[in-house]
Every structure is written in structure tokens, then in C-alpha cells.
Amino acid sequence: MPVETPSPAKPVLHSPLILVVFAFLAIHLVWGSTYLAIRFAVETIPPFLAVGVRQFTAGSLLLLWCLAKGERPTWQQWRASAIIGVFFFLIGHGTVHWAEQVVPSGLCAVIIASEPIWVFLSSAGAERKWRMNATLFTGLALGLVGVGLLFQGETLRSAPGVLFAAVAVLVGAISWSIGIVYSRRSHLSGNPVLLSAMSLVSGGALLLLASALFGEWGRVSWAAISPRSLWALGYLIVFGSIVAFTAYNWLLERYSPTLVATHTYVNPVVAVLLGWWLAGERVTLSMGVAAAMILAAILLVERGGRGLSAE
User: Nearest CA to 42 among 249, 235, 230, 266?
Assistant: First the structure.
């Protein structure tokens, strides 16, 4: 799941084509692959410990880079970043890492793809404005039906606890959406990389605390952690939370948020294919239909939302 930053700069800069291609590949393919990497990481590393180490390490590296460039965070920025860290990482990412112990990575990605729907509903609730048009209504209805179809699929009834874990993923997606709305309404100014690094550090620290409270530190067997889990965790830190995230911010400085947001459509497709290919995850007909409905709903919600803005 990408980090939403307040008020991204408008595209006015020109850059070498190879850098543009690399950046788009990072947010489309790398972020899509992180769902399978999460599954591999939590095979032998407790979930909250894994995601806590991931976010705190990535955030610390980005924060040190910003400090070296002369950036100095304020108390107000730390306070808002801590709140964002709760919604984005403690709940948003924490639930995904926990759930992927039993829920297929591709299914998690499809559930999380519904985020734009929850963003609209959360934003409307926060503003207490329920404007609607036909396109937006159709998108919301289609997306909610698609999510409902996912939760009726046979995969979620395949083993005890899978349905509950999938609900946790949905809660995480809604939490992430609330965090996006809060970040937009907090009116924070400053370097978006610095603000996001602070949120990563705050969220990572809270996740490590949660890991300790849940007793993961006492239960973890360091000798039992597999090389695959360690490689997956390293991949998540370097490529998922630093490379792809930096590419995301770099693109937001040069291209419209709508164009950059195309990763929303590609990530679940990449996650489903990788889960099927490398982890033997089943792709059922109901899951495919639900995914198509959710992706179509995202497109309709975005178009309907632009229609409201133009009114």
C-alpha cells in the first residue's frame, strides 16, 4: 500500500525517459510484488515484528537522508505523522502482515484495491457532504458488491480463521483510507519525503511496541527464521518501502496524481499472478469476477469524483 502525502506538487519538470520508466515500473510492479514478499516474510518471522522492523528501518534511513539535507521536523509534524502512522502502518500494514499468515497474498491485494471507495466514503463523512452523481453511485455500488462477492468466495471458507483474517485486511484498508483523509485535512507543509519518513518511523515504533505487547519477542525463534523470510524482509525494506516509495514521491513532483495512481489497477493483478506462479495460490472464478468489479468500480469512482469537482 502506497503512502499518501499531503498536497503533492504539480507536474512541471522534465526528466530522462529511462528514469520515468524505472519509477513507473517501481510503483506498478514492485508494490504489486510486496504482497507475496509479505507472505514469505511472515512464514517464520512474527508479523508485527516483521512489519515493525520493515517500516522503522526504512523510515529511519529516509529520515537520516532528510536530516543530512538540512531538513528539520517540527513538533506539529511529528504529532500529525504519529497519528498518520497509526492509521497507515499500525492498523493498515499491521493487519495485512498478520492476515497473510493464512490469507493468500493475491486475495489481500484485491481486498486492499477497494481503498479508493473507502477514501471517498471517509472523506464524505469527514466533510459531511454526500454529493453524488450516477457514475459515482454506480462505482460505489459495484465496488461494494465486488467486496461482498470476495467474502462469499470458497477461499475464505477453506480453513478456520481465514474469513476473520480477511475481515482484518478490510479493516486495514479502511484505516488506511481514514489516514489519507486525515493527512489531507491536517494541512501539513514540508518535504513530503520527510513527512512520510516520520510517519514510517512513528508507525514502525508503534508496531514494534505492539509486537512486544503481543509477546512476539519472547516467542520468536531466531534460529528458525528462514533465509527466504530474511530475503523477503530485506526486499520489503529496500524495494517496497524505500525504492518504490521514493519513486512514488518523485513521480508526484512531475506527473498528475491521477496518472501516478494507475498503480492501483496494476498492483492487484501483479500480486495475484505472482501468488499463483510462485506460491501456488488458487485463483477462483469468483475472485476473478470480484477483482474485475472492484477495479472497474475504482475507475468509476475516480471519474465520478472528478465530475463532482467540476461542478
Answer: 230
